[in-house]
Design a protein that fits this description.
This protein has two domains: 67 residues, no CATH class; 370 residues, Aldolase class I (TIM Barrel, Alpha-Beta Barrel). It is globular, with a radius of gyration of 27 Å. The N and C termini lie far apart (100 Å). The strands form five sheets. The chain has an eight-stranded parallel beta sheet. The chain has a three-stranded antiparallel beta sheet with strand order 1-16-17. 39% of the residues lie in helices and 15% in strands. Strand 12, helix 10 and strand 13 form a beta-alpha-beta unit.
Length: 530
Amino acid sequence: MNIANYLTIIEFVVVVMLLLLVTFVFIYMFLIDKRQKRHPVLRNYPVLGRMRYFLENIGPEMRQYFFDNDTEGKPFSRDDYQHIVRSAKYKRDVIGFGSKRDFEQSGYYIRNSMFPKQMEELNMDRETKVKTRKYLLHKERLFAQRKEELVDEETLTYLLKEEDAVVIGEKTRNPFVVKGLIGMSAMSFGALGSNAITALSEGLGIVKGTWMNTGEGGLSKYHLTGGADIIMQIGPGIFGVRDEDGNFDWEELKKKSEIPQIKAFELKLAQGAKIRGGHVDGEKVTPEIAEIRRVKPYKPIDSPNRFHQFGDLPTMFDFIERIRDTTGKPVGIKVVIGSYDEADELAMYIKQSGKGPDFITVDGGEGGTGATYQELADSVGLPIKSALPILDAALHKHGVRDRVKVIASGKLFTPDRVAIALAMGADLVNIARGFMITVGCIQALKCHSNACPVGVATTNPHLQKALVIDEKKYRVVNYVITMREGLFRLAAAAGIDSPVQFERKHIVFKDDKGTVYPLEDIYQSYLKAF
């Protein structure tokens, strides 16, 4: 026999063995499926029924990439996601051919002026520039990566002029002066990994005039690494400012307040997507996280639904006063508005007591979180476009609006959304998931699992390697700059020279029949409801 015959025999044997192996595996799976008692589909349709589970598992990806149209996906549509990515990666926010908005649906619109401002007429800082890096797209390929080039660029930061800067805690020993209207919402180290927090910190530090909120997980070295201004959040678990027994540690608070980057403190009463206390499994409480939060490593952490240190407005205001006296820095609260009554009671007590927070962060129910329950995320707490006017109207009714700055959050990730929030009463705006997308989030919806495939919402060292800090930090810079530039562009279109001048008169609401209502008229209905 020659070599060809031997090869033929070997090929025949290999094919037979593969067929036998496939047959054996099929019979084995058939018997397993037929005998198991958990899944009726598999008992009736052994092996074949497994396709159902396979398709079910890949369903989210199939919908995201193939079946949902550009404006359908939740919580962020493909258009929403790509808008953020284009701004961050390419520093471009232009579109072609026209809007995909459904103009038959009801919604808010920004009133354009018959005589808009020229860009050179805008009142903005034209001197402060920063160096960033952006991608130039040379060719879009079908079966390979895009042909792109990463280039350096020096750009304006589109900061506010000194006279337009927002001052938080004017009467404190150390007021917080902000020259950019957009900052990073509360995201804890632990919920996000060290690479993500570092990239955000360094990017926000480069772009200037903004801030990052630590989240209730405490202050980490990763928050500080980029030199960005910090709002340190304190949640009901008082992580980072507690002693070994879980009591509030005033000496530790004072030490934190002596860090120059910390500009303000925020007491988290509630979060739009998670009106409850938090829980962290013991396996996630690494020694590093335990040290930051001042808890024991590898022990489960439970954060209560509310602070044990106070239980009503008088005791909360006393607690705020003590923090302010101890630190010399502004103190705010983060709330979710659920009714007229609570907003009215809060504003009334600010008036009566002469005390209270220097700022109020109002979080809409559409906000995000690493993990929560469906019933809380969907149905507890009003969305931002309802909550914000209620809070603003209550503060105006009692004559204390000028004493309190308002920060709004809840899917305000584009300039037009921010402009509408400013007109509804916000002084500043927080963004969380928009910033997550800038550092690589692909909406895998695995934030709660510590298995984020792109290394953003995970502390897994292996997964975090996917997130390259030196590249992603510039995406943060570009996103903030395009957002600010867009705000000034909208201000010019509305006939005003700075986005801080957006008022209710600049916004109208159109219903599904085409009837237009000035926001001022809608706002009056809020005042009448008190």
